[in-house]
Amino acid sequence: MTIHARTLALVDDLRKLPAETPWVEFKKDNDDAPMIGKLISALSNSARMADEHFAYVVWGVRDGDHAAIGTTFEPSTRKENGQPLELWLAQRLQPAIAFQFDVIDYHGTRLVLLRIPAATNAPVEFERTAYIRIGSATPRLSDHSERLRALWTKLQPHVWETGVAEQFLTGDEVLARLDYACYFDLTAQPLPDNRAGIFERLAADRLVLPDAGGHWIITNLGAVLLAKRLSDFSPAMARKAVRFVAYGGTNRADTVTHRQDGQRGYASGFKGLVDYIDGLLPRNEHIGKAFREDQPLYPSIAIRELVANALIHQDMTVGGAGPLIELFADRMEITNPGKPLVSPDRFLDLPPRSRNEALASMMRRMRLCEEQGTGIDKVIRAVELHQMPPPDFRTEGDSVRAELFAPRRFAEMTRDERIRACYQHAALKFVSGERMKNATLCERFGIDPKNAAQASVIIRECQKAGLIRPADPAHPRAGYVPFWA
After folding, report:
1. How far, CA to CA in Å, does 200 sit from each of 89, 192, 195?
2. CA distance 386 to 298
């Protein structure tokens, strides 16, 4: 479909509205610049309140009966104080907003359409004042505290997920691009026997939204979760695909042995990705009582949870970057774009903060990741069960990296690894309602109880590093807790 066809269908839909709404305004020829500035602020804020992606002003449509009567308004030549109208408006609107004027030949009648994106991060202000639409009035937002609170409530969860990945698609085009059968399977819902039922469920989860002229929008959430091919969407969306690279040695200069650039959405491709990685891992030898001959090099639950965390917690607004999984001979690194919202040393105990709450919620419903706040617990439990070196969670530039290390005996672990393992063990015990003791640390490392003094040395070093403290200084046998307890 052409852009012009969508615009005509959009005007058709706007004219069919029974009356002006808080996000739609009709004008004849009024081109007063301050009036337009206030309208942009008010309609943008009101569109967010109404969960609309855009607000609109249409010149050339009569307010009463919505008849297309035409307009003489010409935004491209209109000046205000010697400046082009669009520049004059842009300089007075904060935050910056990508409004757009379009002159339309509407079946032989000249109309002007102003598209106004809904507010995203903060209320839109014109000349340092935010406005809102109430009926036909455009009052200051600050004079209506209840609406201001409601707007901030709407703004807080508005993130990348609600954006438009593709618009003005027919039903057939939507179903060709999205793996809708996967959605029904993973959410344990019966597949409806008619198209209306399919779209009703997809729209209820805001994976698709109605568009002009009976067409549909695929949201960013719908595309990133269910795309059959992410390359069917914009290059920015395609770059959100998960990349996997395996190296023949211990650094990136070694030969690449396997590479897979994900094509499918996260939900439709998740199981295949995890199975692919698991299939490449060598099976492990007996190291400690927890290992069996058929065990993969890394616990499957740890890989699954760390990959899911990378998908959920990435910063989707970072351009040209997506999750990256790298497999080396001695470790696995899982990197996602975006600085963490929680300090890496508190991933275990603090409630997770995600930029992508709808994505996280949907992946939990699809049973692709654990319930909120338990994923890192399971990673560390699995690592301790297999007496492996502790995982490392850290910030790398503007990204977060989780590192899993191949099995090594206690004697082969570095001093820093032993201290980090001690801290993680104390934290895991604390969040489980227990306390770390010398005996539990011996078990974690596979240290013979006759050599418990080795665990005592690690505990002292971990205390010196400020990572743990005695649970009760007056009673040394009470055990130890993390520094934040």
Report:
1. 39, 10, 9
2. 9
Span between the terminal Cα atoms of the chain, in Å: 59
For residue 133, report the phi and psi dihedrals to the nearest 5 degrees. Answer: -100, 125
Q: Where are the domains of the chain?
A: 3-156, 162-237, 239-408, 411-482
- Both tokens of 183, joined, read 């959605």
Mapping DSSP onto H, E and C, the string for 166-233 reads EEEECHHHHHHHECHHHHHHHCCCCCCCCHHHHHHHHHHCCCEEECHHHCEEEEHHHHHHHECCHHHC
Best CA proximity match to 464, nearest among 402, 413, 415: 415
Rg (CA), the chain: 28
Of the CATH numbers 3.40.50.620, 2.30.30.140, 3.30.565.60, 3.90.1150.10, which one belongs to the domain with range 239-408? Answer: 3.30.565.60
Shared fold status for 3-156 and 239-408:
no
- The verdict on domain 3-156 having CATH code 1.10.20 is no
Q: Take residue 284 and report the two structure tokens written for it.
A: 């492990």
Stated pTM of the model:
0.81
Q: Mean pLDDT: which of 140-154, 174-188, 298-312 is highest?
A: 174-188
Integer Cα distance of 227 and 268 in angstroms: 7
CA 14 – CA 107 distance, rounded (Å): 15
C-beta of residue 219 within 8 angstroms of C-beta of residue 213: no
- In angstroms, the CA 376 to CA 278 distance is 19
Edge-first strand order for the sheet with 331-337 is: 256-261, 243-247, 324-327, 331-337, 399-405, 392-396
Question: Tens digits of per-residue pLDDT, 270-301?
Answer: 999 999 998 888 766 544 444 545 567 888 89
Tokens of 178: 């999205």
At 51, phi and psi to the nearest 5?
Answer: 60, 35
SS3 category, 48: helix
The angle at the Cα of 19, spanning 18 to 21, to the nearest 5 degrees, equals 120
Q: Which of 358, 141, 395 is nearest to 266 (CA)?
A: 358
Q: Rounded to an integer, what distance in angstroms lies between the CA atom of residue 272 and that of residue 429?
A: 33
Question: Among all chains, which residue has been given the structure tokens 């930029």?
Answer: 355
CA–CA dist 400, 393 (Å, integer): 7
Where is pLDDT greater, at 196 or 340? 196
pLDDT of residue 3: 64
